[in-house]
Amino acid sequence: MRLIIGSRGSKLALWQAEWVRGQLVAAGYEVEIRVIKTTGDKLQAVPPIEPLPASLAQTVAAAGSKGIFIKEIEDALLASEVDVAVHSLKDMPTDQPPGLALGAVPLREDARDVFIARHREPLENLPSHGRIGTSSLRRQTQLRALRPDLVYLAMRGNLDTRLRKLEQGDCEALVLAAAGVHRLGLSERITCYFRLDQMCPAAGQGALGIEIREDDRRTREAVAHLDHSATHHAVRAERAVLRNLGGGCQVPIAAHAVVEHGDLRLQSLIASLDGIRLIRARTTGSVSDPEAVGATVAEDLLRQGAREILDSIK
Asked: Which end of the chain, N or C, is less packed with Cβ atoms under 10 Å?
């Protein structure tokens, strides 16, 4: 059986696609990787200070904030131009297009965020008004709660591009996902790891989403052995928080779940843009119903005032 994997062309995306390809080849399949340029890739080529071209702005609006890195790949999957799509799960909207399904979620890499400083100093030692490069509102708001005196810069680009900007002196430090740094063999660049109580990760961070056509039974069977049950349950709960709150990339919502001793433990937060107000919630529930666990945490956040923060951001 021959399979075609659709992937973005960044180093990290290709690493992820190659890993999946290796697993499928080892299982006896013939596998090809096809690179597809997404709206998100085009967006990253535009400097943050420049307005987006009208055509690109319209495409971004149509794809949604969380769909810009996957829309064209999903289109190719629906058109049967590729058989498998490999995504960073945190880039996937919580609602998939009709006809597509999440075929597998492999064992998750480290879900934490990391701090990478040009001169190796930890966050607490950065001088006031030091510049931190991150375009993530989730990261910016939690960082502001820790260091409101620093300057937070929007920084587009793939991981290697942002590291190059750091070396050029565009900022004093970066905050990145540990998983991507590990996968590209750059762990020695890490200054320190954030604790989960300092920086709660994005829903699905560190996990891969292997997407297939819903009615493609042969491909579903091919990727099934890549699924890691505990990771899949955990990310379903995390994504349920987002779904119940209606959040995307432009809303500072974090969620992280683990399966421990047969229980599903989930923590989440939503933050005001200035980082002054952080609302946290956590619960332990049944592995058999991750969506219910996520809904319980979302309800707790709303009870504490999350709707006020969401409305102010929108």
From this structure: C
We report the CATH number of the domain holding residue 139 as: 3.40.190.10
Query: Please, are residues 108 and 165 in contact by the beta-carbon 8 Å criterion?
Result: no
pTM: 0.90
- Please pick, among 41, 83, 91, 216, the residue that the annotation labels catalytic: 91
Q: What is the pLDDT of residue 44?
A: 60
Could you please report the per-residue DSSP string of 183-212? HTT-GGG--EEPPTTTSPPPTTTT-EEEEE
- Model pLDDT for residues 133-174, shown as the tens digit of each residue: 998 999 999 999 999 999 999 887 889 889 999 999 999 999
Q: Does residue 91 carry a catalytic annotation?
A: yes
Output the CA–CA distances (angstroms, integers) from residue 30 to 1, 23, 27, 185, in the order listed: 6, 11, 9, 27
Return d(Cα 240, Cα 50) in angstroms, integer: 35
Q: What domain range includes position 189? A: 113-193
Q: Are residues 69 and 217 in the same domain?
A: yes
In this structure, the answer to whether residues 76 and 88 fall within a common structural domain is: yes
